Amino acid sequence: MTQPEEKKAKIGSRARKVRNIILKILGAIVIAIVLFLGIVYITNVISSNSEAKKIEPYGQHVSVDGKNMNVFIQGEGKETIVLLPGYGTAAPALDFKLLIDELSPFYKVVAVEPFGYGLSDGTEKERTAENIVSEVHEALQQLNINKYMLMGHSIAGIYGIDYVNKYPDEVTAFVGIDSSVPTQPGIDAKLPTKMFGFIKKSGLQRLVVKFGGDPYAGLPFDDHTVEQMKMLSNKNSNSSTMLNEMDHISSNFKGAQGLTFPKDLPLLLFVQGNNEDVLGWIPLHEGQIKDSVHGKVITMDGEHYLHHTLFKEIAEDVRTFMNEAK
User: Fold this and answer.
1) How distant, in Å, are the alpha carbons of 16, 37, 120 from that of 31?
2) How would residue 326 be classed by pLDDT, with cut points 50, 70 and 90?
3) How far apart are CA 300 and CA 308, in angstroms?
4) 130 and 246 share one domain
5) 145 and 37 in one domain?
6) Contact of 267 with 196, CB cutoff 8 Å
7) Of the candidates 162, 69, 158, which has an alpha carbon nearest to the alpha carbon of residue 114?
8) Exposure of 281 by Cβ count < 10 A (0-12 exposed, 13-18 middle, 19+ buried)?
9) 64-73, 167-176, 194-203: the lowest-pLDDT one
10) In this prediction, what percent of the chain has a pLDDT beyond 70?
11) Three-class secondary structure of residue 66 per DSSP
């Protein structure tokens, strides 16, 4: 072998060694990732089965479309308030607990948990506004609740505006808690539902929640309620029903853009005063009440879930507003 050939052979041998080392490292990384995901998945399955036994029932089940929808009722007032949650609120009846406790001495308060939320069943039926509104209405009909004030958080503003136009003889007023507006900007954003589904099924969601910030830190919920909400969040967040609703968010907003609240319907909107994420947040709500015979916007300093910290103020303002509207 000539000297150049020998040199070339050595270089080739060295290159093979480097390649083999790189392949071994990459192989080790792949194996580590697979093992990690396997451990996370198994841990999630075990934890989910364990938590399913610890979740305590509340409310009552109502049959809608052959499935169970959970409804929580508290209070015996002559007037009824029906509460609807914002998107992704895993346990609506518990999430509204602080507000319910303030309202129930004066009203009959009915917290409806749509399919996929709280203790309600999931569903394969498309999560269009039309279907969600129809299902909630059917649940109320089953309970002989035919006259009520509708109060909703966040995206319930979209379902609510559809609801009050479909059932004007039943709804006595609409109250929005930082409720969504059909014409608000940003609704066309494509959401990565497949990625969220993978995070849910793989168990990574539980890991993210565990090491993320505590959403209930500093709030006046008791420890037991917080524990229940966290377990229901692990169960319901990014479920197939929730993700189907996420897929319909844009179309549901667009479908509501031709709707307005009836002029003679009392309309009270609690609005986050310091919202920097949505351009023109307060003017959007002021636009909703401009033609209302009895409409009012109340701005509040707080987070999007205003009812977590300002439940006393909301309850008091609702009572005052409804007395004035009579």
Assistant:
1) 22, 10, 39
2) confident
3) 12
4) yes
5) no
6) no
7) 69
8) buried
9) 194-203
10) 95
11) coil
Tokens of 297: 């916007």
Instruction: Provide the pLDDT confidence category of residue 2 given band limits of 50, 70 and 90.
Output: low
CATH number of the domain bearing residue 151: 3.40.50.1820
Looking at 54, 77, 94, which one is the last position of a domain?
A: 54
Instruction: Read off the pLDDT band of 304 (50, 70, 90).
Output: very high
Sign of the CA dihedral running 182, 186, 190, 196: negative
Instruction: With H, G, I as helix, E, B as strand and everything else as coil, classify residue 222.
Output: coil
Query: Do 234 and 48 touch, CB atoms closer than 8 A?
Result: yes
Q: How confident is the model at residue 8 (pLDDT cuts 50, 70, 90)?
A: low
Which domain covers residue 1, as residue numbers?
1-54
Secondary structure of the chain: what % helix, strand, coil (to 5)?
50, 15, 35
Q: Pairing mode, if any, of strands 108-113 and 67-74?
A: antiparallel
Is the same domain home to 32 and 68? no
- What is the helix (H) or strand (E) element at residue 114, kind and residue range? none
DSSP summary character for residue 304:
S
The predicted-structure confidence for 146-194, as pLDDT tens digits, reads as follows: 999 999 999 999 999 999 999 999 999 999 999 999 999 988 878 888 8
d(CA 118, CA 308): 17
| Total-model pTM | 0.90
Which among 139, 172, 125 has a CA at the least distance from the CA of 63? Answer: 139
The neighbour count for residue 79, using CB atoms within 10 Å, is 16
Angle at 78 between CA 311 and CA 65, to 5 degrees: 80
**Tell me, what's the pLDDT at 78?**
96
